[in-house]
Amino acid sequence: MLRRSLGLLLILFGLLAVTWVGLQYASAAWYDLETRAALETVRELPSSEPESMPDTLPVGEPIGTLEIVRVGLSGVVVEGDSETVLARAIGHLPDTPLPWNEGNSALAAHRDTIFRPQKGVRLGDVLRLKTPHGDFDYRVNETLIVKPEDVWVLDPTSNSTLTLISCWPFNYIGHAPERFIVRAERIPTVNVAATRTE
Fold first, then answer.
1. Vertex 113: Cα angle to 124 and 147 (nearest 5)
2. Cβ within 8 Å of residue 114, ≥6 positions away
3. Which residues have C-beta within 8 Å of that of residue 142, sequence separation ≥ 6?
4. In b/e form, how buried is each residue of 15-46, taking b as 16+ CB within 10 angstroms?
5. Cα–Cα distance, 28 to 30 (Å, whole number)
6. In which region does residue 50 sit, left (phi positive, over 0), alpha (psi from -120 to 50) or beta (all else)?
7. 165 with 179: CB under 8 angstroms?
8. CA 189, CA 187: separation in Å to the nearest integer?
9. How far is CA 14 from the centre of its chain?
10. CA atoms of 187 and 139, how far apart (whole Å)
């Protein structure tokens, strides 16, 4: 009798855990869809005069979308690096410049959600960041594995750089001991619509 009750309790616990994880993924997917739609609406608005690009944004403010087509990575980028932000999006570290400004802009996400495809990133891969202030392309020029205290990866750079940060190893259970870093330098942005029509 005790063994049967314990078995039923474990099954119930398992069902609750699966339901909770499913709800988290559904919530993140819904947030992603809503944020992408809002960003596209802003991008499509006619601009009568040049809009100044902000140096800072409030936490939770959408910045744009990041794509690495070759590995199938696509996610919404939001200002902030809190657990609330990282549970639903790619977070921009507020102490680094926003992507449309010069310098080293850092983005972070969880290795087991949005940044999982990052494990397939190779040198030369192109990243595209689409924002209401323009599209920005970057080419991967370095990947590193560092300790969490190696914050030098956030140091300012003289050129426009995108630094992606996630935990490593990707298949580690629990709090991973190291960080996987992707460094990419901005390159001239290719107008995809124009190249398709030529």
1. 65
2. 73, 75, 89, 90
3. 123, 181, 182, 183
4. eeeeeeeeeeeeebeebbeebbeebeeeeeee
5. 5
6. beta
7. yes
8. 6
9. 30
10. 7
Token digits for 111?
A: 């290795």
Residue type, 30: W
pTM score of the predicted model: 0.82
pLDDT tens-digit series, residues 101-139: 999 999 999 998 899 999 999 999 999 999 998 999 999
Sign of CA dihedral 77, 61, 186, 151: negative
Structure tokens at 177: 């001991």
Q: Which long-range CB contacts under 8 A does 58-63 form with residues at least 24 apart?
A: 59/85, 59/94, 60/84, 60/85, 62/35, 62/38, 63/92, 63/98, 63/99, 63/131
Q: How far apart are CA 34 and CA 131, in angstroms?
A: 15
According to DSSP, the residues that pair with 168 across neighbouring strands are: 178
Q: What was the pLDDT predicted at 50?
A: 52
Tokens of 4: 């049967």
Please list, in sequence order, all residues whose beta carbon lies within 8 angstroms of the beta carbon of residue 45, skipping any fewer than 6 positions away.
none
